[in-house]
Amino acid sequence: MDSTIQALRAFNRFHTRFIGVLGADYLDSTMSLTEARLLYEIATREAPVAVDLQQILGLDAGYASRIVRRFEQRGWVARGRSDDARRRPIELTDAGQAVFADLQQRQHDLFKDRIGSLAAADRRALEAALDTARSLLSRTEPAGYTVRTFDTGDMGLVAARQAILYRESHGWGAPMEVLLGEVTSRFLRDFQPGREQCWIAESAGTMAGSVFVVDAGDGAAQLRLLYVEPWARGMGIGGDLVARCLTFARGAGYTSLRLWTHTVLESARRIYANAGLRIVSTEVHHEFGTPEQGETWEIALNA
């Protein structure tokens, strides 16, 4: 926890300097950062009222009212009529629109200068990281996801993310990482189009999960390496990926699909059970350094 707090504070120090808010006036606009943000909310909302602006920005009611009054005195905003003074709609005047447009251009120019040297791939990575941070800090779910088949570089990412997650959640270290590397390498080396596939789930350009179907021989398909990132759980990604595996395996002519998992992976087990798979055998092993109960699950595809 302490390291996360320190990292967040360090980023805040970097970010406030990066976006130019440490001076008395934000971007030499004669406004503070709070005033600039309030102007933005007035400009982009349909006739907002003071009490709504206060709640949106988490401002003290008196402080928000004083800012709006300053805007009125400068001729930037006008208030409509209402029996309740707190519910009088606020709109930008022509002068206010001009000030807002100028501020928008200043912000655009600042950020264009700051990120202009980034390659397109780096900009996409930045967008994804910002979306992830916003989702985690606001405790909201990412805005949907997409699923695609695998592409260059995905195998390394899948192996790395799962190795890290299993180490953090269950203490499975190097032996698990070796297994992940072997599975992903073998998949690429021996890939059979039409008989095998890997799907990657993404949210806001960031890998959110993955799963594999491989040929297990004797007419059976095997589901491997299902995982969903912690920040993306609860969106239905795991169930979606398993359903794609079953549909693909049936279409490829397999008569059954099996998988190997562990009793401690409760969320994954629920997904498998909901998809119709059932446990056919269990065994205790020490492959990851500690005793773990492995489970083999299976489903008939021609039933």
UniProtKB/TrEMBL annotation:
<dbReference type="InterPro" id="IPR000182">
    <property type="entry name" value="GNAT_dom"/>
</dbReference>
<dbReference type="InterPro" id="IPR036390">
    <property type="entry name" value="WH_DNA-bd_sf"/>
</dbReference>
<feature type="domain" description="HTH marR-type">
    <location>
        <begin position="1"/>
        <end position="142"/>
    </location>
</feature>
<protein>
    <submittedName>
        <fullName>Bifunctional helix-turn-helix transcriptional regulator/GNAT family N-acetyltransferase</fullName>
    </submittedName>
</protein>
<feature type="domain" description="N-acetyltransferase">
    <location>
        <begin position="145"/>
        <end position="303"/>
    </location>
</feature>
<dbReference type="InterPro" id="IPR016181">
    <property type="entry name" value="Acyl_CoA_acyltransferase"/>
</dbReference>
<dbReference type="InterPro" id="IPR050769">
    <property type="entry name" value="NAT_camello-type"/>
</dbReference>
<dbReference type="InterPro" id="IPR036388">
    <property type="entry name" value="WH-like_DNA-bd_sf"/>
</dbReference>
<keyword id="KW-0808">Transferase</keyword>
<dbReference type="Pfam" id="PF12802">
    <property type="entry name" value="MarR_2"/>
</dbReference>
<dbReference type="Pfam" id="PF00583">
    <property type="entry name" value="Acetyltransf_1"/>
</dbReference>
<dbReference type="GO" id="GO:0003700">
    <property type="term" value="F:DNA-binding transcription factor activity"/>
</dbReference>
<dbReference type="InterPro" id="IPR000835">
    <property type="entry name" value="HTH_MarR-typ"/>
</dbReference>
<dbReference type="GO" id="GO:0008080">
    <property type="term" value="F:N-acetyltransferase activity"/>
</dbReference>
